[in-house]
Amino acid sequence: MKIASIIIAALFAVYLLEKFLLRPYCMAKYAKQQRTANASDLKEPTISKLYAPLIQRFNTYAYGNQGTITVLEREKLQLYKTDSCQILYFTVNRAQDLEIEWRFMYFRQEMIFRHTVHSAEFDTHNAQAQETLFQAIVAQFNEQYSAHEKRVDESGIPEKILAEQGISAENWKTARAFLRE
User: Fold this and answer.
1) pTM of the model
2) Domain locations in the chain as residue ranges
3) Ramachandran region of residue 163, left (φ > 0), alpha (ψ -120 to 50) or beta?
4) Which of 32, 41, 110, 167 is 20 to 30 Å from the Cα of 74, by its Cα?
C-alpha cells in the first residue's frame, strides 16, 4: 500500500510539474499571433501546392492535429499549439525547397532541429513517398532529441528545477521510469 501511494504521489508530482512549471516556460516567446489559417487555407501558392500535406503530417504528429498555422512572412509559416513545448517553422526558399526548423524545450533547455526538403525529392503525387520522407525526418528529430534529453539529464538541470518547486528528483525519476514502461 505504501508503494502504491508513493507511485501515485510521484505521478501527481510529474503531472503538476508539467502542467504548471514546464508549460508556462515552453516556447511562449515564439508564439507570434499575426494571421491564422488552416493547412488547406494557405494563401502562399508554393506552400499550399507543394508542402501542405507534409505540414499537415507534422501537425498530426506534434500536436494531435490541434496545432495552429500562422503565416509570419511571405514564405514562412509557424505551426504552434498553446501550452506546448515545441514549435515548428516552415520556410520556402528561392529554390522552392522547404526548410523546417523544429524547436523543442526540455527543462528550459532549447533544442533546435533543422532539415531541408528539396523540391526535387518531394513528390506531390506520391503519398507513400511523402510518408517515407516524413518518417525519416521524424526519426532524425527523435535521435537528436534523445541526445538532447540525455545531455540535459546528465547536467543536473532537472534536479535543480524540481528542487526549486519542492519536488523530489527521486520521485520524478521513479514516476518517469514507471510511465515509460
Assistant:
1) 0.68
2) 2-180
3) alpha
4) 110
pLDDT in tens, 46-88: 565 678 888 899 999 999 999 988 888 878 889 999 888 899 9
d(CA 7, CA 33): 40
For 8, 13, 149, 158, the CA distances from 152, given in Å and listed in that order, are 26, 20, 5, 7
**Rounded-to-integer distance, Cα 135 and Cα 113, Å:** 15
What pLDDT, in 10s, does the model give residues 84-141?
889 999 998 888 888 999 999 878 788 899 999 988 788 778 888 889 999 999 999 9
Amino acid, res. 63: Y
Q: State the DSSP H helix or E strand holding residue 146, giving kind and residue range, or none if neither.
A: helix 127-155
- Confidence check: pLDDT of 29 > 70: no
Are 71 and 55 in contact by the 8 Å Cβ rule? The answer is no
